[in-house]
Amino acid sequence: MPQMSVWMIVASIIAVLVFLLIGFVLGVMYRKKVSEREIASAEDEAKRIINEGIKAAENKKREALLEAKEEIHRTRTECDREVKERRNEVSKQERRLQQKEENLDRSARKEDRDSQPQAPGSRRPAGGDQAHQEEPARHARKDLRLLRGGSQAVSHQER
User: Fold this and answer.
1) Cβ-defined contacts of 149-156 (< 8 Å, 24+)
2) Residue from 1, 150, 21 nearest 90 by CA
3) How many whole angstroms from its chain centre is CA 129?
4) What is the pTM of this model?
5) CA-CA distance, 134 to 121, in Å (whole number)?
6) pLDDT at 111
7) How far apart are CA 115 and CA 130, in angstroms?
8) How many CB atoms lie within 10 A of CB 153?
9) Cα–Cα distance for residue pair 93/154, rounded to 1 Å
10) pLDDT per position as a tens digit, 105-156
């Protein structure tokens, strides 16, 4: 019997080794599958994070573009308002100049009437030489024309 028991011991040792080898192989395969699942899960999470980052970047880009468009609109509105104000100012100045020119024309006509020869015995207004009196009015009209020309040039530049 002693021989059988040696064979049984050897067979038991071989069986234990075979079971250990099978257990090791199964453990390695299980660990590999678990690792692959974890890697796949990490890759999915990474893709999700990247997609969220892309969406966030697109949203930021849209917001920045919208803010830029709003700023352009505000600036354009401000410029339009300033141009309108300037045009109104130029129009007011042109009206004032027109009135001044009309007043000067009236006063020049009045001076012309006053300087015409009068009937004998009528009094001539005091004031000296006629050419000397007309000279300031002539200069004033010339200045008004120059100013009017300058205001029209400004008006054309703004358009």
Assistant:
1) 151/90, 151/93, 151/94, 151/97, 152/94, 154/86, 154/90, 155/87, 155/90, 155/94
2) 150
3) 65
4) 0.46
5) 24
6) 84
7) 7
8) 10
9) 12
10) 898 888 888 877 665 555 555 555 555 556 666 677 677 667 666 555 544 5
